[in-house]
Amino acid sequence: MKIISLLLLSFFICLGCVEKSESTEGAPLKSRSPSEDDKVIGFADFKMRVPFSWKEIATTSPTRLVEFSLQENKPYKAIGFYLGPNQDMNKEEMVQKNIERWEKQFSELLSKEDISVKPEKITCVRFSGTFILKTFPMDKKGIPAPNYGALAAIVDSPQGPYFFKITAPEEVISRELGNFTNFLNTYTNIMVSGKANVKLPKAPIVRKNANNKENITSDKIVFGNFQLKIPSEWISRKASSQMRLREFYLKQNSSYKVIASFFGNPLKMNAEEAVKQNFDRWRKQFVELKKEEILSLSVSTPKLIYLEGVYLVKPFPMAQEGTPTPNYGMLGAVIPTPEGPYYFKIEAPASILALEKENFVSFLESYQERSDSK
User: Is the pTM of this model over 0.85?
Assistant: First the structure.
């Protein structure tokens, strides 16, 4: 009899455990307080502790500094960006411009909430509504996703703002809010004698040699599986933004530059699709397109287009608004590779591009595939 009673008692205890477990399913996660065991990651002049349930993974785009897989809310991620120094804006203007940019990523914004965090250098905002999901960063259309949200933070630094963001269904945002704010609240300044003791995170700029040095000779530069010859009238410089691979300033017109970019190939486009899609994207950057010319080259791989008209000049790359500027043009090239297309582009007054067209063409016609790239 005692044995039967014990068995019944055990059954009801277990049943109570099951009922308790079921009653808490889907409830917000209780974020764990930051611990000394959490991984520390450094960005320029500051560091932060990574939440225990976030796992750092390889970045999927050169525009991203870091990605964390949300282990308790897969397949969503927390992403860190750095896009370069402020574009002649003070902190207040920079913060406002980026909040406006994030708002416009929603076709219907239902709520916007300022999230309080301890560090004064950090601004954190929560958004909810119908979000426009994009298949790749420059996608113009996207797919409306109702009941979606975003947690977005701006960390001010002497090198320019750093951005951290989670975009996911609203229930995931609610569950990750504690982790996100804990992450931001672990912000610690690490300036030593007025200088940062952590190097700026860098995107892969160009292919490197065995000694980890950039493959740039006096007049040649390597990108992926090919190399190009730099015109003597250009000055090669490291990129000023994480979204770019390299910049080439015009000696005669140093306010303008040729920009090299690479974003991978998330849509698995073939060469023809990559060229068409990006030529279409560049056309849409003009308020009024008055002239278009596909320029022929002596080599077959690079594809080059010239566009001219009323161009929308933007104060910084991700700005939603710009200044319509007449008599402006663009030389844009796409070089397809197995790892994805590379882009080379210069935007300037049409009069400057008329003088620079020959250099741009010779730059592309120097294209040479490298036998050691495989």
Answer: no
